[in-house]
Design goal:
heterodimer, A: 295 residues, mainly alpha, two-stranded antiparallel sheet, 13 helices, B: 281 residues
């Protein structure tokens, strides 16, 4: 009997440790990024690091073009994905007949499961030539190509969180809208969607967090030119994101070099951005969950 | 315009949006299946690449991905499920529990390339594991833990509280109740979560780029400390790094990767719906 007490105590302690481990992991990740990335600040002057030129071989480590590249590609993708995803969520939740829902939901799950390299490969072989022909760009590997691929990578997150938000609107709202004589369509857009507004914003934020961290597909289709994307037609030109820079260059740098530290510093920037986005989204989700349902 | 006609127009519009979302998915899958199918035969699956990877098979990439999947599963299943048991059965609503939940949401949102950097810094360099299957599996496992924890927690929570009360009333301890009653009931949900997590890990490239993936290896990996080829990285290599690659080989590799991921997806869906129908509570 004593024996089983002890083994029970051991198991429960282990489970506790495993439960706590996630907090430790986040801290550990941040610590290691800082450890490898912060030295760049002593090796490179701050104006250089925040500058407009990324030419590591010539000692220029300006991350501004990379940050702007990421922002351009991501914001464009979300601008396309938000209306598309919200409309799809509305269709699935409110409009679609049962059989259509049975087809749509698994297909969106399939999309969520397609590996990023496969979408990148598809982007290179099918989307890029299409972009070059229809938009008349010099190359198909442009910011807009990346945005289009990212749109579809962001959609599953966006749709499923938006669906949860719509689902959490109490049935009484719907009934009230219809009882007032509004059509189903009017009820959806004037009552249900406004009531689910903050959940939909959360959906867009989580999708944006996904998109800004996406690496392989973006690297394969955006052309990877580290230049400031500030012209009016920047979307139609090649661009380089933070993630693609790290992925493309880390394999070739010497450990402990300035370039190595600079790539880790980009990792810190990515970590902080996604951490801020997810923290805000998580607070919204938890606050709403306590009040019964994401809204 | 009549508001009922507006409604009909609106329904058509959101229906079209859904088509716009789903049609490209079909296009991706169909184009890869159609163009890749002709590349795949027994030789493609069972031989080493030859002539600078332009001919021969992709055996080392398939085997490597299986090694990575096995290694990842070994690490992330106990940690992920253990964390879920803690959150569902032991954690009280304190600030620390909230911190754990925030940590899980954040872990799930950290970009895969940042996991790659972390794995390089901690496992490859600091712990001196080198670029190896072990370092890559550890990196992939940490990325997979939040997926497994959150889906498993949901599955454990779904088991009605009466099951625990009855177990306790029969004289069972808390852990006995969890192990003999709650976990078996939650198992289908947990397995589904594990498969969904591993499916993501199987397709990831960025976390293994600097932690374990090799451009080309003339032989299969023998120990956990060897680097390895892997399907997603191989696809990246043959589409962007090797000029003059026959398209058929590229599509064939993409198809094998897609098949692996989709079949895991189907298995997860089948398990979920089968047990949901059989469940009696």
């Amino acid at each position: 009997m004593h024996n089983s007490r002890w083994s029970e105590f051991a198991v429960e302690s282990l489970i506790r440790v495993l439960g706590f481990s996630t907090v430790g992991l986040v801290a550990l990740i941040f610590v290691f990024l800082l450890r490898e990335g912060l030295p760049v600040l002593s090796e490179v002057a701050l104006p250089n690091f925040l500058g407009r030129a990324w030419y590591p071989t010539f000692g220029s480590f300006g991350i501004l073009p990379l940050v702007l590249g990421s922002v351009l590609v991501t914001v464009t993708a979300i601008a396309i994905a938000l209306p598309l995803g919200l409309a799809t969520a509305v269709f699935v939740r409110e409009v679609a007949p049962g059989w259509a829902r049975e087809i749509l939901k698994p297909m969106i799950e399939v999309l969520a499961g397609i590996p990023s390299v496969v979408l990148g490969f598809f982007g290179m072989t099918m989307v890029a030539p299409w972009v070059r022909q229809t938009l008349g760009t010099a190359t198909g590997l442009t910011a807009i190509t990346g945005s289009l691929i990212l749109t579809y990578m962001a959609l599953p997150t966006l749709i499923s969180v938006a669906e949860d938000a719509l689902d959490a609107v109490p049935k009484s709202y719907r009934d009230a809208g219809l009882a007032m004589g509004a059509t189903q369509w009017q009820t959806i857009w004037r009552v249900i969607v406004p009531a689910a507004r903050s959940g939909i914003v959360t959906a867009a934020m989580l999708a944006m967090g996904r998109a800004i961290g996406e690496t392989m597909a973006v690297m394969m289709v955006t052309g990877n030119a580290a230049r400031m994307p500030t012209e009016w037609d920047a979307l139609l030109r090649p661009v380089r994101t933070m993630t693609a820079t790290v992925a493309a260059e880390m394999g070739e740098v010497a450990k402990g070099s300035t370039h190595y530290h600079a790539l880790f510093a980009i990792g810190i920037v990515l970590f902080v951005i996604t951490f801020a986005i997810n923290m805000t989204a998580a607070r919204a989700i938890f606050a709403k969950r306590r009040r019964g349902g994401l809204r | 315009m009549n508001r009922h006609r507006i409604q009909r127009l609106g329904f058509v519009l959101v229906g079209c949006a859904s088509l716009l979302v789903t049609a490209p998915i079909l296009l991706v899958v169909a184009s890869i299946v159609v163009r890749g199918a002709s590349a795949i035969d027994w030789e493609f699956l069972s031989t080493m690449p030859s002539q600078g990877m332009k001919a021969g098979g992709i055996l080392p990439a398939i085997v490597g991905t299986l090694w990575l999947l096995g290694g990842t599963a070994l690490i992330c299943i106990p940690v992920g499920v253990g964390g879920a048991i803690y959150l569902a059965e032991y954690a009280r609503d304190t600030w620390f529990t909230r911190a754990i939940r925030l940590a899980i949401v954040n872990l799930a949102g950290i970009p895969s390339i940042v996991y790659g950097l972390f794995g390089l810094g901690l496992f490859v360099l600091f712990l001196r594991l080198g670029t190896s299957i072990l370092a890559a599996s550890l990196t992939l496992a940490i990325m997979t833990i939040p997926v497994i924890t959150s889906t498993s927690e949901e599955a454990i929570r779904a088991v009605p509280v009466e099951f625990r009360t009855v177990s306790a009333s029969l004289g069972g301890t808390r852990w006995q109740g969890i192990r003999r009653i709650v976990l078996p009931q939650a198992l289908p949900g947990i397995i589904t979560g594990i498969i969904l997590g591993l499916l993501r890990a199987a397709g990831e490239t960025a976390p293994i780029l600097f932690t374990g993936a090799a451009f080309f290896l003339p032989r299969l990996p023998r120990t956990l400390l060897d680097p390895t080829m892997a399907l997603p990285y191989h696809l990246y290599v043959i589409t962007t790094q090797v000029p003059g690659m026959p398209q058929q080989v590229q599509y064939g590799t993409a198809l094998i990767l897609l098949l692996l991921v989709l079949s895991l997806n189907v298995i997860a869906t089948v398990i979920r719906s089968y047990f949901r129908r059989r469940r009696q509570w």
